[in-house]
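so i finally got all the pieces together for this one. its two components total, 621 residues if u count the protein bits. some of the lines might not be protein, just check the labels. i wanna see the whole assembly predicted at once instead of chain by chain like last time, that was a mess tbh
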Amino acid sequence: MIALKNIEKVYRTSTIETLALTNINLTVRAGEFLSIMGPSGCGKSTLLNLMGLLDAPSTGQVEIGGQPVTQYRDVDLARLRNQKIGFIFQSFHLINDLSVLDNVEIPLLYRKGDETGPSRRELARQALEKVGLSNRMKHFPSQLSGGQKQRVAIARAIVGQPAIILADEPTGNLDSAMGNEIMSILQQLNADGSTIVMVTHDESMAKRTHRLVRLFDGAMVGDSLLMVNEGR
Amino acid sequence: MWNKKGSHLLIIVEILASFLVLFGVTSLIVYNLQNYREPIGFEYKNRWSLGFDSRGEADSTVGDIMQQIKSRVLSYPQVEAATMFSNNIPFTMNSSNGDVTNNKATTLAQQFRTDLDMPRTLGVSVLEGRWFDKSDELPDARTLVINTPLKKALFGDEPALGKKIAFGGVDDKRKSADYFTIVGIVGNFKPRGEYQENLPGLFQMNKGPDRNYTRSMLLKVKPGTDAGFEAKLTRDLGLLTKGWPIEVSYLENQRTNQHNIALVPVIIFLIVSGFLLINVALGLFGVLNVSIAKRRGEIGLRRALGATERRISRQFVGEMWVLATFALVLGLLLAGQFPLLNVFNLKSSVYLTAIGVSVAVIYLLVTLCALFPSRQAATVQPAVALHAE
């Protein structure tokens, strides 16, 4: 589903060069629930950004669905992100001036297809129902709790039915109860067929995924299959 | 975007003010351009005007002396034609006008007093009827030649030849002897040049006691006639008139002066409004730059969710167009009063064209102001833009 081959990412300013990732070779298979762990600054989010085509590697190749995408134009990358990938961020990244329903609808606005305004809104409603927020559709993000915001973000990530969901510390800003709730939703999405890659600092959340990749100083230092623990 | 009422109100007011200034300047330009497209109706190249100051001469003799001057002038081989003309000769600031009526409508008309040779001297064509002839020189002949705008103002599409008109308003009391018969219709006659509105005008025969008040003459000279002839002419005519001061002017030069008088205010307004628009553009650009910079996180998010760079640019331009539309709707409510109330007696087409041009310029301005900062923001990698929030 996602393959990273010989990836290196260097951030350069006029005076400083920072190696964020080096020699990354990683394949995420369809239907997998993979977690990435490591200390702060080890390159977890950078790795997730490369998988999500939000950033380009300095060297190496990214493949999505078997197709190398490193040389893709902006418009092709945007289409891939829109159709194949859903994003969940630690800080939710909801647009405060838009209602919950409008926030969830955003990915569909960028989809070239048959969806009309009413059908887009119907799909957004269905996504919100899936995360249990159908009663908050007309609220604004400022009127929601952290857990609710993250559920809106999940609804936004799944509204376009992407094959891949990339979650960057989705429980990082939530208390443990809310975190567990979000994790359960992600597990359910994975059970329904979504491939999920999640960056986390929380060992207990990582243990609820199929596979754990550990990073240290930009390098992969561990890649292990896990016995899925459904417990909380 | 749509909850930021304060900053949006500021942008709307800024755009509204620019629209109104632009509308004013554009109206002025459109008015002048529309006038410019209407021919002035006479020739000015190789035409000279002679102005005489009869000083202490008894008025009763001026008419005869002017006739002698005309005969003398026509005796020079350099002069192809000459005509007496009232003091409101073309391209001067002098004017003579008054109301004329056909007892159904009244309009203000410029009035010119001239003679049989005016069409030949100024290259004026008679479109209908005839120019004055010897029969009009008889004391009881009361005839007029009018121009097309006067015909339209008084008769519309009805024929005007043979109809009678009089000076004054519809309700003024007058005798049948006060009426003049229209014997000819000429096209335009715009004595102040191309930028003058095509105003109604009429021509009267220079005869009887009125001849004594005519102290100007127009000449058609051969191409290449130079200042040497001008000096000889003034010297000879000085001897003939026993020292009347004579002022010789070239209509071509006078026309340039008139154009300057018409264009200088337009240019000044244009410069002032140009600076204003530049300031508004810089202001909008600054406001948008800050606003777009504040929304880099949102841009990153939208890019992550599938928006292309172009789509992001289009979104910001679209948002600015919505704000501009709010401002323009307000502006149109104000500007729309000008054609409705016929302000300054200008044609509706002047205001409507100015509104159209101003709306287009405003949309162009906000597009340019929004395009650059939004394009810049959209080209940032989504990961970097997301990090900005």
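The interface with chain A takes residues 1-4, 297-298, 300-311, 381-384, 386, 389 of chain B (CB under 8 Å).
Residues 5-38+259-387 of chain B form one domain.
anyway lmk what u think
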